Amino acid sequence: MKAIKQFENKKVLVLGLARSGEAAARLLAKLGAIVTVNDGKPFDENPSAQALLEDGIKVVCGSHPLELLDENFELMVKNPGIPYSNPMVARALEKGIPVWTEVELAYLISEAPIIGITGSNGKTTTTTMISEVLNNGGQSGLLSGNIGFPASEVAQTASSDDTLVMELSSFQLMGVDAFRPHIAVVTNLMPTHIDYHGDFEGYVAAKWNLQNQMTADDFMILNFNQDLAKELAQKTAATVVPFSTTEKVDGAYLENGSLYFKGEKVMEASEIGVPGSHNVENALATIAVAKLSGISNQVIKETLSAFGGVKHRLQYLGDIKDVKFYNDSKSTNILATQKALSGFDNSKVILIAGGLDRGNEFDELVPDIQGLKLMVILGESAERVKRAADKAGVAYLDAKDVADATKIAFENAEAGDVVLLSPANASWDMYKNFEVRGDEFIASFETLKGE
Q1: Which of 52, 84, 100 is the last residue in one of the domains?
Q2: Which residues are annotated as a binding site for ATP?
Q3: What residues bind ATP, as annotated (predicted)?
Q4: Model confidence over 74-86: pLDDT tens digits?
Q5: Domain residues for 164?
Q6: Which residues are annotated as a binding site?
C-alpha cells in the first residue's frame, strides 16, 4: 500500500456503510483523515457502525441530517448505490465537495496495476476468467471491486507483484477522478440502470469514465460486435484492442469456430467450459487481456476449458439421471436470458422464468424461447411471461417459488434434458436478491439429487 499523505487531517464524510463503506472509512482513518460515517440504519441495528465507533471513528446513524454537511468536509465517499439525487449528495455537490466512490481510494493507494472490467452483461464472468488465467499463468490476479471484494480493502494488501482485477459498475465509475487502469475492458453496453442515470447516454458516459486518465501506454479492450464500441474507440487516448465474434479484427476474434489473437490461433470455441455465445465474447475479452499480459496460449486454453462459470451466472450444478441443471439466477433482464438460451438446444430445455413485475412485456424473448420443451413460470410477472410463451407456442406450468419450480421441471424432464433457471426478471418480489433465489435453486437440486 502506498504511503500517501493527501488525507492527513482532512475531514471526510463516508455516506452509506455496507462492506465497501466500512472498508473506505477504515482506510481513510488509517491514512490520517478525520472521518465521519453517516448511515441510514439505526445504530442499535448497525453492527458495522458499532464496530467503527469502538475503533474511534465518528458515526451518525438513523437518518441523513443535511446540517452534517456544515462541518467543512473536504471530501465525500459515498456508497455506489446511493443516487446523485440523494439530498446529502446533491448538497455536497452544491457546496463544491468532491464526491467519490471507494474505487478511487483503491487506485490512489494501490501498488498493483489495475485491470478494470465494466459493461452491461458479462462483467463478473469476464473478471473471474481473467483472474483465473493470470493466476494459472504464474501471475497474481486479485479479484476486487463490484464482484464482492471492496477494492479499497484488497488494494491495502496488494503488492507491485500483484494485479488488481477489478469489476466496476457504472455507479462506481461515476465517482472517480485520478483512477487509471493499465488495461480496461468494456464487455458490451446495453440500456440498463436508466432509473439511476436518467438515460442511456448518461449510463454510457458513466461507464466511459473508466478511460478518462488512460494514455497510449494503456489498453482499452472493446466489443466490436457493437457499433457503439467502434464509435467510442475514436474517443479514447488508450490503445484500442478490439474483440469480435462477427469479423476479423486486429485483436481477439472468432473465425471458423476457433479463437484467435492477432492471427494466432489460441483454442477452439467449443472448448470453452461454459456454454453460450456470450461466453465466447467473454473468452475473447479474456484472451486479449491474457495475451497483453504475456500469458501462454496453453495456459489460456487450459483455464478457459476448465472454467465452470460464476455462481448464479450460468453455473453448472451437475446432473441427476442425465438431466443437467444450470443456475442462471443472475439473469435479471431479458437480454441476459437471451444470451443464456443461445448456448442450448431449445428442444431439450425446461426454462424456469418470472419474477418482479416491472410492467414490461416479454415480446423480445419470443424468438429465443420458441421450441423450448417447457417453461415453468413463477412470480409477479407470470402473466406477462405466459403471454410471451403463448406467442412462442411453448407449453408452461405454474410454480409458487423456485423450489417448487425446480421439482416440477425435474418431474417433466427426460435424460439429456436441461433444467435452466434464467428468470429474465429481478428477484425482489419473492427474494431479497438474485443470490438468495439462486441458492434456493442449488438447495433444491441437492435435495432432488439425494432422493
Answers
A1: 100
A2: 119-125
A3: 119-125
A4: 999 999 989 999 9
A5: 103-306
A6: 119-125
